[in-house]
Every structure is written in C-alpha cells, then in structure tokens.
Amino acid sequence: MKRALITGISGFVGRHLRDVLIREGWDVYGFDIRPAGENVFVGDLSDRAALTRAVADCQPDAVFHLAGIIKSQDPQAYYISNLFGTLNLLDAVMQMEKQPKMVLASSSAVYGLTRSVRPITERSPLRPVTEYAVSKVAQENAALRYHYAFGLDVVIVRMFNLLGPGQSPDLACSAFARQIALAEISEQNEIVTGNLDAKRDFVDVRDAARAFVLLAEKGEAGQTYNVCSGNAVAIQECLSEMMLRSKKQLSARVDAARVQKNDVPVQVGSFQKLHKAAGWNPRFPLSESLEDLLNDWRERVKVELK
Fold first, then answer.
1. Closest listed residue to residue 236, CA positions, set 265, 195, 203
2. CA separation for the pair 117, 197 (Å, rounded)
3. Which of 211, 213, 217 lies closest to 274, judged by CA?
4. Residues 250-254: contacts with CB within 8 Å, 24+ apart?
5. Non-local CB neighbours of 141 within 8 Å, separated by 6+ positions
6. End-to-end distance of the chain based on CA atoms, in angstroms?
7. Which of 102, 159, 201, 253 has a CA-to-CA distance to 281 between 20 and 30 Å?
8. How many of the other CB atoms lie within 10 Å of CB of 147?
9. 298 Cβ neighbours under 8 A, 6+ residues apart
10. pLDDT band at residue 304, thresholds of 50, 70 and 90?
11. Which residues contact 144 (CB under 8 A, 6 or more apart)?
C-alpha cells in the first residue's frame, strides 16, 4: 500500500484529496495546524522540527503540499508560510533515505495579467499582481531548485478557480452561496457582491483532487501542470445560476468596498498538458459544482445558527 502525507489535510482541497486517495487504496497521513483525525501530525509550517518528525515518522511515498496562506492583511505572512514553510518541508523531505514524490499546489494567480485571449498554457509568462501570487511564484522556484540542484522529484500543480462543497466563504462563489442559504431562512433579500464582470476558469475541487493523485503517479519531475476547465465564465453568470436555484426571490448589489484592486479581467487555462500526461479531463460541469456548493452551504448555515 502506498503512503501519502498531505499538508493542510483539513483544508478545502485536502479533505477531498484524502477521500480520493483512500478510494484509490493509499494509506493517508496528514500534517495540519489543527487536529484533524487519526494519522494527522499537528504543527505549523514554520516549525522545521515538527515537519521533520512528521516526514520521518510517516515515510511517505508521496507528499502533497497544500498548506499555506491564501488571504492575509499582512503581506509578510504569505512569504513566511508559502515560501519559508515550503523550504522547511523540502529540507525535511531531503533528509529521507528514499525521497518521495512531491506534488506542490500552486495557483493560476501566478499568471496574473495575461495579454492574450487564448487559453493560458504552462509556458505562458508569469505576471503576478498580488502578494499572494508573488509568494506562489517564489514557492514554485524554491521547489524547482531542489529538483535541479538535488534531483528531488517535484511536480507543480497550478490550480485555477476551484468550486465545490466545503469551500471557504472568503472566495466569491462560496460567499454568494452562503448569503443565499442564509437568505432562504431569514428576512434577507439582497446578495452583496464585489466585481461581477471578471471572467474566470472554474474547476471542481473533486476534479482537482483527482488530478493530484494522477500526477503523483504519472507527472514528470520538474514539470508544471494546469488544472482547469478550459472555459472562461463571468462571475455574474455563477451568481445568476445560484440565485435561480434559490428558494426565494433575491436581488444583488455591488459593494465598491468588495471590489478587489488589480483584479485580472479574464483568465482561462489549457489542461492539454495534464491530459496528455495523465489522461485527465474535468468531469463535473459548472452547474453541478454550483449546486453542490449551494446545498453544502444550506447545511452549514443550519450549524452556524444553532
């Protein structure tokens, strides 16, 4: 039985990845900042000793590195977690006698301001416009250095905009779903939004989790792979579809304070490299991802309001 170590196992992607790995017959361990069940080592990425112990005790065949910071008011936090935390993990992995495959979660944010309407490939230039995106570029480069300098088997996964059950309300579509679910059981009739004109490439988290497992088995060391749908959809369209599924009539209002600075107007990716390497195609249509996200929030708000 192959053994996996997932950093950030309690997170959005981590929970779905754990499920896929278990179904595929892997023995799954985790490293997380909070207790998350059996076989989970508790610690922070900044704790090099804790990471070293976890890797040594687990002896994984593959390490899936998902842990990190997506949003913070402190710009330095991105680098402390996403860059220096990753360096701690890489050093821990290098101490193993038999080094595992390392699958590193990155983001389409690294592409930033694209200047072409064509789908983004892994060879497209990187033009990051946020601190988060810059930290992910630095994280990627750090991991690739360990591949080029020491031969570490590293694969980088650039995830585009994820959707699906369990998503944090910090992200737009999940925030909409939560507001709709709350409105259905309250007197609220209005959904407050940020910029709705931006177009994004949405991919289901369950499809992304499946891509991670395939790349652990078939991904080429030192290579980067996009995980995306290949379609650009306006955020307005996602909101409209969920509002149509609402149990009551709702309206939407754009709040200027929620409009992000340096927002990329359009982003769409190509998954042809991933398909060629591992036979991956997205399976979940956008409508199903949105419906599952909304239904998930209907259950979660019941718990919130208890």
1. 195
2. 16
3. 211
4. 250/180, 250/183, 250/189, 250/190, 250/191, 251/189, 251/190, 251/191, 252/190, 252/191, 252/192, 252/193, 252/196, 253/190, 253/191, 253/192, 253/193, 254/192, 254/193, 254/194, 254/195, 254/196
5. none
6. 42
7. 102
8. 18
9. 181, 184
10. confident
11. 154, 156, 222
Q: What is the pLDDT of residue 228?
A: 98
Report yes or no: 17 and 26 within 8 Å, Cβ to Cβ: no
At 70-83, the pLDDT tens digits run: 999 999 999 999 99
Contact 51, 43 (CB under 8 A): yes
Please report which confidence band the pLDDT of residue 42 belongs to, taking 50, 70 and 90 as the band edges: very high
**Would the pLDDT of 164 be above 90?**
yes
Q: How far apart are CA 174 and CA 177, in angstroms?
A: 5
Residue 135: pLDDT band with limits 50, 70, 90:
very high
Task: Summarize the confidence of residues 248-261 as an average pLDDT.
Answer: 83
Q: What is the DSSP letter of 257?
A: G
> What is the DSSP-derived secondary structure letter of residue 119?
P
CA distance 270 to 281: 11
pTM greater than 0.90 (yes/no): yes
For residue range 9-32, what is the model confidence (pLDDT) as tens digits? Answer: 999 999 999 999 999 999 999 999
φ, ψ (nearest 5 deg) of residue 193: -130, 170
Q: Which two tokens stand for residue 162?
A: 């994820």
